[in-house]
Amino acid sequence: MPVGGPTGGHVLRRAIRGQRRRVVTASLLGTVHQGCEALVPVVIGAAIDTAVATGSSQALLRWLLVLAGLFLVLSNCYRTSARLAEGAGEHAAHRLRMELGARVLDPRGGADANRLPGALTSIATNDARRVGSVATVLAYGVAATSALVISSVALLRISVPLGLLVLLGIPPLLWLGHRISRPLERRSETEQERAAHASGVAADLVAGLRVLKGMGAESAAVARYRTTSQDSLAAALRAARSRAGHEGAVLSLTGIFIAVIGIVGACLAMRGSISIGDLVAAVGLAQFLLGPFQLLTYVNAEFAQGRASARRIAEVLESPAAVEGGESAVSDASAGHLRLSEVRLGSLRGVDLDIRPGELIAVVTADPAAAADLLLCLARERDPADGLIELDGVPLTELAPDGLRRAVLVAHHDADLFETSLLDNVRAGARADGAPVDRALAASAADEVARLLPGGGDTVLAERGRSLSGGQRQRVALARALAADSSVLVLHDPTTAVDTVTESRIAARLREVRHGRTTVLITTSPALLAVTDRVVVLDGGTVTADGHHSELVAGDERYRAAVLA
């Protein structure tokens, strides 16, 4: 899906166009339903004049049969119309959720910039639902407008003054209702923004609950969430007050309008301009008009909230990509030759690095920011501000991001696990055969973790793998990265939570399982550094040393302090 372009109005129109058939059919059936309801007081008035006033039983029976037919048609039309309208809303919301999901998962990234995961979840649920509701209420709005037109025609047939009163009075009422909805639209947008932010903060705190408890920072976290929640509550209350004021004002206007119609009709009846049956029909139509007006009030409010939500959805859909998408495919037989030339980004100050195919290389840096920037470049989550990174002689900017990430896998040390079995977590990126999975489990010592679980590898893990210890989670995440068997594997501190004995076993097995494949370790672990072909030292954002681990330990005091401290 191309990034950029849609606005709130585009999002609304696209949601409605996608459900055009359902909306049109629901509108037609809703019009028939409202038309039948509008005819009920007309039929009752006619029955009074032609049957009750004359005492004709046959005429009364005929009109009762007509009423029964009207109720049969309107009830069936209402049921079918409501089902289609609600279906249109649900399908429109589902389509928006799919578009948002595709944008968030777009390999080029950018949709999650400056947005908490909880905020994105709120946009994909609450905002998508509100925009989908516009497709639903549009059919209701068409039916309500049709009811007003039918009622006006019926009143014109009864009395021209009454019909003109309705026809001339409806447009100003609708205009006033639209004007009154403006504050509701603004406050609804603020309400959704605050609610999304509160959801994001809550998800963030839950994710870090164990860390917060360990630091004894629960009170500060609770205070932060309380402030955020109170802001969200205040915005919700303002929106609720605006909604109540909007509905109350519109109902008051329509109530006055209907009372005027009743008074004018009574005056006409007293003068003999209309019959008693016509008066009953006019009053019945006036009371019936309250329903369409209330429905239009509801439709107007839903449109106001839908427009606010559509703008928030458009902001996500039009988020600029973090990297530009290349078009060249990555060969499945990639040699895994990486070369960095004068790469500059953040803390990196002109990094030159040639990583040969099949090499097991380590990068040591005492600056966490430099390590993070290097990972961003290699994963192509960000493109260098200057310089060039090549895979097998092809610049990364010319390669399709999704294909590139299958060839160059960057495994962060804090990678999350899924709420599924241990084996399914490891198989997530593996090829079809089971051999890489078995080797990956053994190399990462995750097979020992599986043996300790009650159901073995089929044991379902808790959310984000919280049922495992930190070291166990790290081993399973390492197994998942190894099982992918990518041409280039970049591991960032893969054993920081593992005991030294297990770390030594992993180091020895890692070299074996990655034999012939390019592997980059960003770490300061002596056990891992000892099994590498060579070590590159980054200091001040540039390469300052390159050699074997034992040579650097013996001859470089700063290196020795960084890895043996």
From TrEMBL:
<feature type="domain" description="ABC transporter">
    <location>
        <begin position="333"/>
        <end position="565"/>
    </location>
</feature>
<feature type="transmembrane region" description="Helical">
    <location>
        <begin position="248"/>
        <end position="273"/>
    </location>
</feature>
<keyword id="KW-0067">ATP-binding</keyword>
<feature type="transmembrane region" description="Helical">
    <location>
        <begin position="158"/>
        <end position="177"/>
    </location>
</feature>
<dbReference type="InterPro" id="IPR036640">
    <property type="entry name" value="ABC1_TM_sf"/>
</dbReference>
<dbReference type="InterPro" id="IPR011527">
    <property type="entry name" value="ABC1_TM_dom"/>
</dbReference>
<dbReference type="Pfam" id="PF00005">
    <property type="entry name" value="ABC_tran"/>
</dbReference>
<feature type="transmembrane region" description="Helical">
    <location>
        <begin position="60"/>
        <end position="78"/>
    </location>
</feature>
<keyword id="KW-0812">Transmembrane</keyword>
<dbReference type="InterPro" id="IPR017871">
    <property type="entry name" value="ABC_transporter-like_CS"/>
</dbReference>
<protein>
    <submittedName>
        <fullName>ABC transporter ATP-binding protein/permease</fullName>
    </submittedName>
</protein>
<dbReference type="Pfam" id="PF00664">
    <property type="entry name" value="ABC_membrane"/>
</dbReference>
<keyword id="KW-0547">Nucleotide-binding</keyword>
<keyword id="KW-1133">Transmembrane helix</keyword>
<dbReference type="InterPro" id="IPR003439">
    <property type="entry name" value="ABC_transporter-like_ATP-bd"/>
</dbReference>
<dbReference type="InterPro" id="IPR039421">
    <property type="entry name" value="Type_1_exporter"/>
</dbReference>
<feature type="transmembrane region" description="Helical">
    <location>
        <begin position="131"/>
        <end position="152"/>
    </location>
</feature>
<dbReference type="GO" id="GO:0005524">
    <property type="term" value="F:ATP binding"/>
</dbReference>
<feature type="domain" description="ABC transmembrane type-1">
    <location>
        <begin position="24"/>
        <end position="305"/>
    </location>
</feature>
<keyword id="KW-0472">Membrane</keyword>
<dbReference type="InterPro" id="IPR027417">
    <property type="entry name" value="P-loop_NTPase"/>
</dbReference>
